[in-house]
Write a structure and sequence with these properties.
The chain is of the alpha/beta class and about 550 residues long. Helix content is about 25%, strand content about 25%.
Length: about 550
């Protein structure tokens, strides 16, 4: 019987709230800003918010925090929706902060009427100086004492487009000497004359995140508003707005965001990589975006398993990317069909195999599968094998091909190297071998025992193709601690492209299939592939190669 996992701290909170009758059911939300593509850090948040609602019979809204028209685009909205669904989740309601612009405006008016908000003409630099420091109290704005009537009129004028960008802001009136800097009269509305992806030019004032977020939660009756740790200082302001407006008392809870080795989760920096051409778009398979890892061949099942394994913490920590890769390997090993592809080809001619003859040999698709199936592999006199599967002067315990040495061709015959052919520079270009006719896999009557098994493809039947070998985008383990320009840590070998020979069955590969190229790793078809140019992306190697690198350094 599997050991039951203990509850994480958020599950404990939810169970306590439900058992005490605080709520009859829970409501969570996933609130991305549509200013970029989702990344692996968002996957953790998605799994957490949707997972909580699923576990406790609640619901999760997908809410787009679209309060900054300058950086937001419909393209990002659509991509986010695709990513959430790809991960395996379906939201209860699709909502937007912009749906509430009218209501949020009225909330702001309510605060003005209560004497808790005022219009400020100070510049952003002046406001920053007014705020003071964590150890020094701030100073009141000279506009703080404006009357309620004046503030109402000025705020109405802001809404009507009377003033240019930056001319005025609306600030909450709280306490300029408060120990929490976020409580020192925070800005709650600013002027932005910019086209909004949903509301067009209907608005020229937009609420700040701190004002829009909690109120949107309250409007949707979100019971558990789950944020990352950087929002801990914001919680007091979140509660203050809800209390003063006397609206539904949503509660904010914080968890540690995902930080992962050799990876960066800053949307701003990821955008920089895209715009400067360091990567080939948001869905480049080296990117930590969900679009990128999906194109690379990561499965939603493996990401959900990863998020489950890392758990939910209250303190920031650095997760080793090898754990994610382990989860990916574990799942792909179960679902991937096996195929033979030669990345660095070396010609083998079987001298005692009849010229012009070929035969079809069965090879299993996946030994891990309950329903064992096989495919037919063409075999002929001329083959391609990997260059690394031959050594002219091998060390002891080398069980692959060498002069006078035998090896088994996977799903085929035993062959023996009889002659080595070299070019004028002394490079090995061809091997002359003989095969043992009685050694056919599954029907071996030769009595010959060999330890080595290598993969191959028939030269006459092989398809040309391209594989893209992806590696970690950064060389620095902890990019959060990296000093200087983050671009200096880019891995120059994060992408290696190779022309290869592959078995003919791969001509039928589709985008939703995963393959293990024997002894090479897990691969998937790239969306750029065509019938004339087959392109496969390496999802992950068969083993953690970086662990080996780390031990030798």
């Amino acid at each position: 019987m599997a050991e039951e996992k203990s509850l994480n701290f958020l599950q404990e909170i939810v169970e306590k709230d439900l058992s005490e009758g605080k709520y009859t059911s829970i409501v969570t939300r996933f609130p991305p800003e549509p200013n970029g593509y989702l990344h692996l850090g968002h996957a953790k948040s998605i799994c957490l918010n949707f997972g909580l609602a699923q576990k406790y019979g609640g619901k999760t809204n997908l809410r787009f925090d679209d309060t900054n028209p300058v950086t937001e685009e419909t393209e990002y909205v659509e991509n986010i929706k695709n990513d959430v669904q790809w991960l395996g989740f379906q939201w209860s309601e699709e909502v937007y902060a912009s749906d509430y612009f009218g209501q949020l405006y009225e909330f702001a008016v309510q605060l003005i009427r209560k004497g808790l908000a005022y219009v400020d003409d100070s510049t952003s630099e002046e406001i920053a100086l007014q705020k003071g420091t964590p150890t020094q109290a701030g100073k009141n704005s000279p506009y703080r004492s404006r009357s309620m009537e004046e503030n109402l009129q000025l705020f109405e004028n802001m809404k009507s487009g009377v003033y240019p960008d930056g001319a005025k802001v609306l600030r909450a009136k709280i306490d300029m000497s408060h120990t929490n800097m976020h409580m020192r009269d925070p800005i709650i509305y600013r002027i932005k004359h910019a086209h909004h992806h949903r509301t067009g030019n209907a608005w020229c004032i937009y609420p700040m995140y701190d004002f829009a977020h909690g109120q949107s939660d309250a409007i949707e009756k979100v019971t558990h508003s789950i944020c990352t740790l950087e929002f801990v200082p914001h919680r007091e302001l979140y509660d203050w707005f809800i209390h003063q407006l006397e609206i539904y008392p949503s509660r904010q809870y914080e968890f540690a965001r995902l930080n992962m080795t050799y990876t960066m989760m800053s949307k701003r920096k990821l955008l920089q990589l895209v715009t400067e051409g360091h990567v080939n778009g948001w869905d480049d398979p080296r990117m930590p975006t969900l679009s990128g890892v999906r194109r690379r061949g990561y499965t939603p099942e493996s990401l959900r398993e990863f998020c489950d394994k890392i758990g939910v913490a209250k303190r920031d920590n650095l997760i080793d990317i090898s754990l994610l890769e382990f989860c990916v390997r574990e799942h792909l090993n179960k679902i991937s069909e096996r195929r033979m592809v030669v990345l660095d080809p070396l010609k083998v001619i079987i001298s005692n195999y009849p010229e012009g003859k070929s035969e079809e040999l069965p090879s299993e698709n996946n030994p891990e599968s309950e329903n064992m199936t096989s495919r037919m592999m063409p075999f002929s006199r001329e083959l391609w094998i990997e260059q690394e599967d031959f050594m002219e002067n091998p060390p002891k315990k080398y069980f692959r091909l060498a002069p006078g040495q035998m090896v088994r061709l996977k799903s085929a015959y035993i062959i023996k190297c009889e002659e080595v052919v070299k070019d004028s520079n002394g490079n090995v270009i061809e091997l002359r071998c003989t095969y043992v006719p009685e050694s056919k896999s599954g029907h071996d009557t030769s009595g010959i025992q060999v330890k080595g098994v290598i993969h191959w493809v028939s030269a006459a039947h092989a398809l040309p193709g391209e594989v893209r070998l992806y590696d970690r985008l950064f060389l620095q383990e902890d990019m959060n601690a990296a000093e200087g320009d983050f671009r200096q840590y880019l891995n120059p070998h994060s992408l290696v492209v190779k022309k290869v020979w592959m078995e003919p069955s791969l001509a039928k590969a589709t985008l939703n299939e995963h393959f293990q190229f024997l002894r090479m790793g897990y691969f998937c078809l790239d969306p750029e592939a065509t019938s004339e140019n087959l392109v496969f992306n390496r999802t992950v190697t068969l083993r953690d190669m970086w662990a080996k690198v780390g031990k030798t350094n």
